Amino acid sequence: MPTLQLHDTLTGNKRAFVPGDPKRVTMYVCGPTVWSYAHIGNARPPVVFDVLFRLLRRTYGDEHVIYARNITDVDDKIIEAARDLGEPIDVITDKFAAIYREDTGALGVLPPTLEPHATEHIGEMIDMIARLIESGHAYEAEGHVLFAVQSYERYGALSRRDREDMIAGARVEVAPYKKDPADFVMWKPAKEGEPGWDSPWGRGRPGWHIECSAMAEKHLGEIFDIHGGGTDLKFPHHENEIAQSVCAHGGKAMARFWLHNGFLSMDSTKMSKSLGNVKLVHELIKDWPGEVLRYALLTAHYRAPLDWTQKLLHTSQKSLDRLYGVLRRIEAKPAAEVPETVEAALADDLNTPKALAALFALAGAANRAETDEARQAAAADLLAGGHALGLLEGSPDAWFGIDALSEAERAEIDQLILDRTAARQAKDFAKADALRDELDKRKVLVDDGPEGTTWRMG
Ligand code: AMP
Ligand code: ZN
Question: The domain 5-261 belongs to what CATH superfamily?
C-alpha cells in the first residue's frame, strides 16, 4: 500500500502520515450543531473525512481506527430554535441529530466510531477549565471564565494571523470583564430559562471551543493523530481548541495533522445559511440519489473550493451511469485489494478527482478487455476502487431502477432495444421510431452512450 501523505495546515506542508500508535489511530472531526438541517456544504466534511476513515481502516485494520465526530447540542442557535419552535431543547437536538445521521447515511457516510455529545461531557469541560485556571492560562470574571490568549505564545500559528487580525476576525466582544479583547470565553453564565449546569463559577454553560478540547482529550487522549473540519473553523475555533489543549497538557501538541476542507459555493457565491443560498441535503436527496451528491462532492480535491451547480449534478449522474453500466454488463465481485491506481491517488493527500479518473480507466479496460477473465478482473477492480470512495455499493439493477422488473419484462425491453438498434442500422427510421415510442410508453429511458446503449426506468 502506498504511504499516505497528508497536508497539515499547521506546518503548511504535505508529509508522510505516521500515527502515534498504529494499533490506535485517532481522528477527531468537528461535527454539527444540531439546531437545523445540514446544507450540502456542511456535508463536505463528513464525506471527505469518511473517505479518509475508510483509507485508515484499510491501512491499519478496522478495529484500530477510532474516529470521533461530535454533536454540539448546547449553543445559542439551539436555544433560539427551541424558543422559536416552542419545543424543549432536547427534542430539537435529538430530532436534528437523527436527521443528520440519516442525511449523511444517504450520502454513504459510515457512522463514526464515536459520536460524543457536548451535554454528556460537561464534567470533563469543567475539569479542563479548572486546570487552565490553576496553571494561569485562564481567569474568572463576573461568572465567566476566559482563556488568556497572552498566556499562550503560539496563539495564531494555525491561521497565521497576527493579533490585530484576530481581534477583528473573531469579532470578539469587547467586554469590561476581559483582560484582553482577544480573550475568549470557555464558560458563561446561564440566563434564566436557559440550559445551565452548576460549576465552581456559578450556574452556566460551556463555550463551543472547550467542548471539542474536552471531548477529544477524553476519547482520543492528549495527543491524537488527525483533527479535521472545514476551512472556516481554522479561526477562531481550532486556534482556540489548540490554545486550550496545548496549555492543559503542559505544552504538548494537540494533533499531529490538521486537515481542512475547502468551501462549497453555489453558482460562484459562498453557500451559507446567513446568505440564504443553501441547498439542504434533506431536500436534495428527494430529487437525486445520495450517491450522485457524494460523487459530486468528490469531484474536487478536498482542499480546493467546489462550485455546486445543476450541471455538476447532471454530469455526476451521467458518470455513475457509465460506471454502473459497465457493472450491469459484467457481473463481478469486488477484488480483494483496492487497485493500485485508486489507492495511490487517495494516498496522495486524498486526491479524489484522480481516483475517479482511475475508476474510468478501469471501466474503459473492462469494456475493451478481450477475454472474459480480463473483463471480470477489470470490473472487480472497478468495484473495489469504487468502494474505497464509498461509491458503487448498490446493485446496478437498483441504480437503473430495474430491480422491480420481472425477468420476462427485462427480456422484452432488451429485445425492443436490440430491435431498435437493428432498425437504425438498417436505416429503417420509421420502425426505429415506433420502437422508441413503445419504450417511452413503458417509461424506459434509453441512453446511447459510447459503450453501447443502456436503459433505465424513468
Ligand atoms: P456549521 O454548522 O456552520 O458549524 O458547519 C458545520 C461544518 O460544515 C463545519 O465543519 C464547517 O466548516 C462546514 N461548512 C459550513 N459551510 C460550508 C461550506 N459552504 N462548504 C464547506 N464546508 C462548510
Ligand atoms: Zn471543534
Answer: HUPs (3.40.50.620)
